[in-house]
């Protein structure tokens, strides 16, 4: 009987994201999610149910928490007018 491949946790997807961006920093955002799934498959996970939305959510969380730089330049900076004002 063949053993099922494990389903990836968020930390596994985050590791795959870092790996893809390290190996292919020039990747286009349209190809990014599929490359992350390929990386998960290479690492022995079942990526079939990992959605694009989940991959992008984890990417955005990593950028906002400062774990990595926004290499793909897709995360919007949420500075408000109050953040830009100077206190004199």
Description:
This protein has 88 residues and is an all-alpha fold. It has one domain (1-81). The chain is 51% helix and 0% strand. The chain contains four helices and no strands. The protein has helices at 10-23, 29-42, 52-64, 81-84. Helix 1 (10-23) packs across helix 2 (29-42). It is elongated. The N and C termini lie far apart (72 Å).
Task: Please render the helix and strand layout as text.
Blueprint: H1 10-23, H2 29-42, H3 52-64, H4 81-84
Helix pairs in contact: 1-2, 1-3
Total beta strand runs: 0
How many whole angstroms does the radius of gyration measure? 16 Å
Q: What profile does the largest beta sheet have? A: none
- Poorly predicted regions are none
- Structural class determined from secondary elements: mainly alpha
Features:
single chain; 88 residues; mainly alpha; 0% strand
């Amino acid at each position: 009987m063949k053993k099922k491949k494990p389903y990836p946790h968020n930390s596994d997807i985050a590791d795959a994201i870092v790996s893809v961006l390290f190996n292919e920093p020039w990747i286009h955002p349209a190809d990014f999610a599929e490359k992350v799934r390929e990386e998960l498959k290479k690492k022995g996970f079942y990526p079939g149910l990992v959605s694009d939305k989940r991959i992008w959510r984890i990417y955005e969380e990593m950028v906002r928490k400062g774990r990595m730089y926004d290499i793909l330049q897709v995360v919007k900076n949420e500075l408000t007018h109050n953040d830009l004002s100077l206190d004199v």
